[in-house]
Design brief:
The complex is a heterotetramer of chains A (about 500), B (about 350), C (about 350) and D (about 325). By secondary structure, chain A is an alpha/beta fold. Chain A has helices spanning about 45-50, 75-80, 100, 115-130, 145-160, 175-190, 205-210, 230-255, 300-310, 330-335, 345-350, 355-360, 375-390, 405-420, 435-450, 465-470, 490-500, and strands at about 5-15, 20-30, 35-40, 60-65, 70, 85, 165-170, 195-200, 210-215, 220-225, 265-275, 275-285, 290-295, 315-320, 325, 340, 370, 375, 425-430, 455-460, 470-475, 480-485. Chain A has 3 domains: about 5-240, P-loop containing nucleotide triphosphate hydrolases (Rossmann fold, 3-Layer(aba) Sandwich); about 245-335 and about 420-504, P-loop containing nucleotide triphosphate hydrolases (Rossmann fold, 3-Layer(aba) Sandwich); about 355-420, no CATH class. Chain D has a single domain (about 15-310), classed as ABC transporter involved in vitamin B12 uptake, BtuC (Orthogonal Bundle). Helices cover about 75% and strands about 5% of the residues of chain D.
């Protein structure tokens, strides 16, 4: 190793209760190196990042910066040592301006200890110029579009003069050209001797910008080395492991139903929502899985909400089961037989402080009650049946959902919607943060539903997932549906190209 | 004493004219400042065809203040030029002060004031006096000199209650006080009067409990019930207002010990008088509150029509309302028209 | 023009001015110098309380105990000055210190004992009031109760500046006499506003309230920030106590009863979101003054005291609803503009 | 063995408050043996019934993350309404009481509607309602005390005895059981908790979140109205000034002492009763021991802080 090691984690481990998120992991970043970190969701990447930035205190192991031991679990100490991070979730303060957010917690100060606004602005403008970013420094962050907010976060890390920058899926919200701009920036930083960690699900990007790669699976490093030493299929294999490889192969082995049984259950024509999406037209057939894919921020979620009644579309027509409809609340959509497993299960899906049983029955209260009074036996039977069918662990209906693992939480959420016996089921990123085994189980359930004639509209950013279970695929780019085709008619590489809007 | 003579005179006099006559008489007879000279002022003449603003700043809407207001309005409404307004102090000193400021700004001629605190309203009264506004305090005096003060005396009234109660208890035994929370001056005056009175007249009587019941009948029921659980040998109860005393009566009635108890209230509202007549409540300090309002209004009329400006007061007038310790013996002498 | 639109509370200010203009037209004596004087002298200290209250609310908390802290400060002032005859220049810092400590205790309960702010300060609301009763000079020395405060340092707090007289403008128009408390309020406003916009310490409140996790990751001491929020709330209750008590020349045991709801209402009307993270020093002042002109205006209109209560309740709900409506609208418009560009 | 320890750990937050209550009862009992008599316990329950009814009915509101500051004036208004119906309009007792409770339901519905429909902060809306309802009550009834005369049926509500136990206690028990039943045995109970836990998830699961929220305010208003009728009956008077400032804070304190979180989600009717009991025991004990008001307040504040921080501490150990 000729290059200096900037940041090093030695035998890092982290457990949450009984759940092992990270086990004895070694990790090192050198100066002037872009280090890719790959692995499927729940592989422990985020945990590792959080330990390296001091956001989590490791259960075991040490973090060294420039060869000296860094204090554990102190974000401030890590920032001062020059380790900055762009997290997946926003870490901006909505009520403050862009300028204040960029220098959050560490603005330049005058001799009197006041914030030096002139200096702050000068520095920020210099950064904007240097990295060719377009932002209104005086705008309040809450008024910015999400894409712009991500730029503020990048600017925030750049403003730190950081030696090491960790980026947790920085391109998820960015358009194709913006991604290229970011990659230019990364190249410039690398030339200046900065060490970067780059997490991305888009393997093309990893091969484009990274010098070295670490692959993680199930909380452990399974491979690491120079990018030149590994091919793309090998990388995928190591990420996925044999389990999912098999699971997805078995799913893929299932016959596809490119047109379902021919009956159209849901039909959208020219749907639009001001400043969000426009001209969305598609049909959803009985007994098919239509995968709606695209980058995060391509407004797929908003589309689902507008159909489901939890948001309103402003243009176009919607037919469900042959009737023209426009739901004003989810309860109407549910009454019509539509179920919706939302993206953020913690924020939108689960009653976290309630039991598994409460969550399972919550969308189908009529089924387990009469005149608003519980039928306790029906509640118990329903709970037991779902726990058994979904293989929820532990098999205890009174368990508080908050304390379940991600995969089991997702199964509970899915089970809740199965109880309304949906004719149409929407799923938004149903396997994010779900471990490999649970993922396969969820796929099995979806397949069963399809066999029963349910029409499934599944939003996913995970290419492997899309390729594995879709009958048909639709792509959205920046609020427009750019492509619909049968899954057999497209390769994964073509799909990636479509998603990033590279076709245009 | 003179109290009784005046009582007899007052009975049945309800109409405005008599009120004014009595008020003037009271003023003239020296109950009010002798130095108060009724001067001739051109200003007053000019003021006659203008509307005259008068307002009553009370502590908060309440039975007593509402009865005063009835008395006030009765007199004032006969003079077409007077605009009268009743204002809510929201039980907050600072709100009262703000209302005083507003009235001064409006150019009110007379402010009737029931101050929450004697000292705290002082600066406002001073300001009013500088602007030539007559301030007449009701029931609670202010430490700052002002036009007139019409009161039933709390301190001596409470002393008299102690005397009467002690007599009925035979000079010995234990007494409980159902008190108000601190922060309002009449609470201190009544409590101190009662305690001092007991010490003075019946030192053998022990004040065994002093608990706060927030002026409330319901709270008083709960509090006294608990006190009696702990000290069943208590035979005297003093409620700092009638509501609390009646709460005490409720409890004793329920426990079936009413005949052993001597319970006194304060103020003399209708419910209390009725209770005395039924032989439940032992007694209360009664003042004709309507009359008190009429007196205040009469004094105000004199100030306005006489053209006396507040700046000319040399010394504050004080009009002591006669009061009766109403008990089963004396309650009959209180006319229905006087009851509020 | 752009900057003006970005000014916080512009809608509220418009509402305030509209109501002010309404009363000027319809309420006799409203549009006078002395009425303005009454407004300033009567509501400056409430504005100070509201600014203080804005800190706990900004960090997602609430401080119900400020009324009791005010009474505590007032009683300490009364005791020291009237009973122990301590000079005023010692009394004032002592009062401020006591109130600061009372506020910090609230903060400690929230930060270290992890109590819900509502309950923690509800408990201290009772406890501090109890302390007030216990140390009440009026209960301990009844003969002292009627003595006003005479210390020149303290009575000097209740003085006025006749700006008309000083500048000679009063020959041309009637000018209000400005109370010292108003200048104090202006001073506090300038200090707090500078703190919010120019110092890290001031910005921390918004950061912690807006996103506690981000604050932690940015290396901000979240606990210290919350603690100081309650400390500042207590301190401003102390300042308000000094203003009020020197004006009344005495302290009563019931001082500040129910004041917490007035202050919270002022702050929330002033755009301090109960969800935390949003606020400035200007809004609470306008909120307090709005409550002030409602009371003054309705009184001058000669509206019955009972109807006044109904109307002021309606205006309270109206003001908060109007503010929400317009800020929602502004947010949507800003988003539309952003994504349009 | 290990599981026993972990069970005990999870049990601590559940039992912290009852244990604190037992300690307080034990202390009072040691200082004044008369405190421990059955008659005194009956008295405690009788005295807590009014606040108790309001508190159990407020529990749902707080569980949804709301708050209702307007219970004081609502209590006064319902008493006044029943008084007018009985005395002026000469209604029979039953419809008068029903209409009185309906007044509370209407005021609650108005608050709830404004809060749910426009997503305004409950604290400010109900503060405004407090002022509006009080003003309306005073406008209708003035500040005077209205004596209830010769209404044996009405008197019975607050003062009567049924099977040797005060009727007010029966009402309190009935309301508590009804609300516990609603919480445990109906879908509404789950929906209330769900709205407080995760309003968006509840909405996306097809629940009529706004309706649920509004209903909680209606229940709270009805509780306050019922409490007002009982109080009117106990003091033989109706007045617009009843339910003075501080009533709402007592009620909220009781609910929160019972473990409800003002952020919503957590809370149980049964434990709210425990909270009310805690406060009633303190008041009763202080009266019996003749503790001066200043010490009462300081000790009360201190005990609440200690009891709640114990629960929080235990909670943090478990999580």
């Amino acid at each position: 190793m000729s290059k200096q090691i900037l940041l090093e984690g030695r035998k890092l481990s982290k457990t949450f209760g009984r759940f092992v998120a990270l086990q004895e992991t070694d990790f090192a970043i050198h100066a002037g190196e872009v280090h890719g970190l790959c692995g499927s969701n729940g592989a422990g990447k985020s945990t590792l990042i959080k330990i390296l930035t001091g956001a989590h205190r490791p259960t075991g192991g040490e973090v060294h910066v420039n060869g000296t031991l860094a204090p554990a679990g102190s974000p401030l100490a890590m920032l001062e040592l020059g380790v900055a991070c762009i997290y997946q979730h926003s870490n901006l303060i909505p009520a403050l301006t862009v300028l204040d957010n960029v220098f959050l917690g560490r603005p330049p100060k005058t001799k009197l200890g006041f914030i030096d606004a002139t200096e702050q602005r000068r520095k920020a403008e210099a950064l904007l110029e240097k990295y060719n970013i377009d932002l209104d420094l005086d705008a309040q962050v809450s008024t910015l579009a999400t894409v712009k907010q991500k730029e503020v976060e990048i600017l925030k890390a750049l403003a730190l003069d950081a030696q090491v920058i960790l980026m947790d899926e920085p391109t998820a919200w960015l358009s194709h050209s913006e991604v290229r701009k970011l990659h230019d920036t990364i190249a410039r930083l690398r030339a200046l001797g900065v060490g970067l960690v780059y997490i991305s699900h888009v393997l093309d990007e990893v091969f484009q910008v990274c010098d070295a790669v670490t692959v993680m699976r199930d909380g452990a490093v399974v491979w690491n080395g120079s990018i030149d030493e590994i091919t793309r299929p090998e990388l995928v294999d190591r990420m996925v492991g044999n389990d999912l490889g098999e699971a997805s192969r078995s799913v893929a082995a299932e016959p596809r139903h490119p047109k379902g049984t021919g009956e159209i259950l849901l039909s959208a024509r020219d749907l639009g929502m001001t400043n969000t999406f426009e001209d969305i037209s598609f049909d959803l057939y009985k007994g098919e899985i239509l995968c709606l894919t695209g980058l995060i921020g391509s407004k797929r979620t908003e589309l689902l909400h507008s159909i489901f009644g939890s948001a309103k579309f402003s243009a176009g027509t919607l037919d469900v089961l042959g009737r023209s409809v426009r739901y004003s609340s989810p309860s109407e959509a549910i009454a019509a037989g539509i179920g919706f497993v939302p993206e953020d299960r913690l924020r939108d899906g689960l009653l976290l402080d309630h039991s598994v049983s409460d969550n399972l029955i919550f969308a189908a209260l009529d089924k387990v009650s009469r005149w608003g009074f519980w039928n306790n036996r029906a509640v118990r039977e329903l709970t037991e049946r779902q726990i058994r069918d979904l293989n929820v662990k532990p098999a205890d209906g009174s368990k508080i959902v908050k304390r379940l693992s991600g995969g089991n939480q997702q199964k509970v959420l899915l089970g809740k919607w199965l109880e309304i016996e949906p004719k149409i089921l929407f799923l938004d990123e149903p396997t994010v943060g779900v471990d490999v085994g649970a993922k396969a189980e969820i796929y099995a359930i979806l397949r069963k539903l399809r066999a029963q004639g349910t029409a499934i509209l599944l939003v996913s950013s995970d290419m492997e997932e899309v390729m594995a279970i879709a009958d048909r695929i639709a792509v959205m780019v920046s609020g427009r549906m750019t492509m619909t085709c049968a899954a057999d008619d497209i390769t994964q590489e073509e799909l990636v190209l479509q998603i990033s809007g590279g076709n245009k | 004493m003179s109290n009784k003579k005046e009582r007899a005179e007052q009975e049945g006099r309800r109409d405005f004219l008599k009120g004014v006559v009595l008020g003037s008489a009271a003023l003239g007879s020296g109950l009010v400042t002798p130095g108060l000279v009724i001067g001739e002022s051109g200003k007053a003449m000019a003021a006659q065809d203008e509307r005259v603003k008068m307002a009553f700043v009370q502590i908060q809407p309440h039975t007593v203040s509402s009865a005063w207001s009835v008395g006030l309005e009765e007199v004032l409404s006969t003079q077409q030029t007077i605009d009268y307004q009743q204002l809510d102090g929201q039980n907050k000193v600072e709100v009262q002060v703000s209302l005083m400021d507003t009235l001064i700004n409006e150019g009110a001629k007379v402010i009737f004031l029931q101050p929450i605190d004697s000292v705290a309203l002082g600066p406002s009264i001073k300001k009013a006096r500088r602007r030539g506004i007559a301030v007449i305090t009701l029931n609670i005096d202010a430490s700052e000199e002002h036009a007139a003060h019409v009161e039933m005396n709390h301190y001596y009234g409470a002393m008299d209650i102690a005397k009467e109660m002690g007599k009925r208890m035979g000079g010995k035994g234990k007494v409980a006080i159902l008190n108000a929370p601190p922060g309002i001056i009449i609470r201190d005056q009544r409590t101190n009067g009662f305690v001092d009175g007991m010490k003075k007249y019946y030192p053998d009587i022990q004040i065994a409990a002093d608990q706060v019941a927030d002026w409330s009948r319901k709270k008083a029921q709960d509090v006294l019930s608990n006190i009696l659980t702990a000290q069943p040998d208590i035979t005297g109860v003093y409620g700092v207002n009638d509501s609390m005393a009646l709460g005490g009566v409720d409890v004793c009635k329920q426990k079936g010990i009413l005949d052993k108890m001597v319970i006194f209230g304060n103020d003399g509202e209708t419910a209390a008088l009725e209770s005395i007549e039924r032989g439940e409540l032992t007694g209360t300090q009664f003042t004709d509150v309507y009359q008190q309002g009429r007196f205040a209004a009469a004094a105000a009329s004199v100030f306005v029509s006489g053209g006396v400006t507040a700046k000319e007061f040399k010394q504050q007038g004080k009009l002591l309302m006669p009061y009766v310790i109403a008990t089963s013996e004396t309650v009959g002498s209180i006319q229905p028209a006087q009851r509020w | 023009m752009v900057r003006l639109r970005q000014l916080p509370n512009i809608e509220l200010l418009a509402f305030f001015l509209l109501l002010y203009a309404f009363f000027c037209f319809y309420a006799p004596h409203f549009n006078t110098a002395s009425n303005l004087e009454n407004l300033l002298v009567g509501y400056s200290f409430i504005a100070v309380l509201a600014i203080g209250q804005s800190f706990p609310i900004m960090v997602r908390g609430i401080d119900l105990s400020i009324g009791s802290i005010m009474a505590l400060g007032g009683m300490v002032l009364f005791d020291l000055s009237v009973i122990y005859e301590v000079p005023g220049y010692v009394v004032i810092p002592a009062v401020l210190l006591v109130c600061l400590l009372a506020g910090l205790l609230n903060g400690a309960l929230v930060v270290w004992l992890r109590l819900q702010p509502f309950v923690a300060t509800l408990s201290t609301l009772a406890a501090y009031r109890g302390v007030v009763y216990a140390i009440s000079g009026r209960q301990l020395f009844p003969e002292m109760a009627t003595r006003p405060i005479t210390d020149p340092w303290l009575t000097g707090m209740d003085s006025y500046l006749d700006i008309g007289g000083v500048t000679g403008l009063d020959q041309y128009m009637e000018m209000p006499w400005l109370p010292l408390s108003f200048f104090l309020l202006v001073g506090i406003f300038i200090i707090i506003q500078t703190m919010h916009s120019k110092t890290q310490f001031g910005m921390n409140f918004k950061i912690v309230g807006g996103n506690p996790e981000a604050a932690r990751l940015a290396g901000i001491n979240v606990k210290l920030t919350i603690l100081s929020a309650y400390g500042l709330s207590g301190l401003s209750a102390g300042i308000a106590a000094i203003i009020l008590v020197t004006r009344l020349t005495t302290a009563t045991e019931a001082l500040g009863n129910g004041m917490e709801l007035t202050a919270i209402a002022s702050a929330v009307i002033g755009g301090i979101s109960l969800q935390g993270g949003i606020g400035n020093a200007f809004g609470p002042i306008i909120g307090a003054m709005l409550l002030g002109i409602i009371l003054l205006g309705l009184t001058l209109l000669g509206i019955s005291q009972f109807v006044q209560q109904i109307i002021s309740g309606l205006i309270l709900i109206g003001a908060i609803g109007y503010d929400k409506l317009l800020s929602d609208f502004r947010m949507r418009k800003a988003r539309a503009m952003q994504s349009g560009s | 063995m290990l599981s026993l320890i972990s069970y005990l750990r999870t049990a601590i937050p559940t039992y912290a408050m009852p244990v604190a209550l037992l300690i307080v009862i034990g202390l009072f009992g040691a200082l004044a043996p008369v405190f421990l008599t059955p008659a005194n316990f009956t008295a405690i329950i009788y005295q807590m019934s009014i606040t108790g009814i309001m508190a159990v009915c407020m529990t749902f509101v707080i569980m949804t993350g709301g708050i209702d500051l307007s219970v004081g004036p609502v209590l006064a208004t319902s008493g006044l309404v029943v008084f007018f119906l009985l005395h002026i309009a000469h209604f029979p007792l039953f419809p008068a009481v029903v209409l009185g409770i309906l007044t509370g339901a209407v005021t609650g519905a108005i608050s709830g509607l404004v809060i749910a429909l426009f997503s305004l902060p409950a604290m400010i809306v109900t503060l405004g309602m407090l002022s509006i309802v009080r003003g309306s009550a005073l406008l209708a009834g003035g500040p005077d005390l209205h004596l209830v005369r010769e209404q044996p049926g009405f008197e019975f509500i607050g003062n009567g005895f049924l099977f040797g136990i005060p009727f007010a206690i029966w009402i309190f028990v009935a309301v508590s059981l009804l609300l516990i039943f609603i919480q445990k045995r109906t879908t509404f109970g789950l929906q209330v908790a769900a709205v407080g836990d995760n309003e968006r998830a509840a909405y996306l699961s097809g629940r009529r979140v706004k309706l649920v929220k509004m209903m909680t305010y209606v229940i709270c208003g009805m509780g306050a109205a019922l409490a007002g009728i009982i109080q009117s009956s106990q003091v033989h008077t109706a007045a617009a000034t009843y339910g003075e400032f501080g009533t709402e804070l007592d009620v909220i304190a009781a609910v929160v002492l019972g473990g409800a979180s003002l952020l919503g989600g957590k809370g149980s009717v049964a434990r709210t009763i425990l909270g009310v009991l805690f406060l009633a025991v303190l008041n009763n004990g202080f009266n019996i021991l003749n503790v001066p008001i200043d010490y009462q307040l300081i000790i009360k504040g201190g005990i609440i802080v200690i009891a709640l921080s114990l629960t929080e501490w235990a909670n943090s150990k478990v999580a």
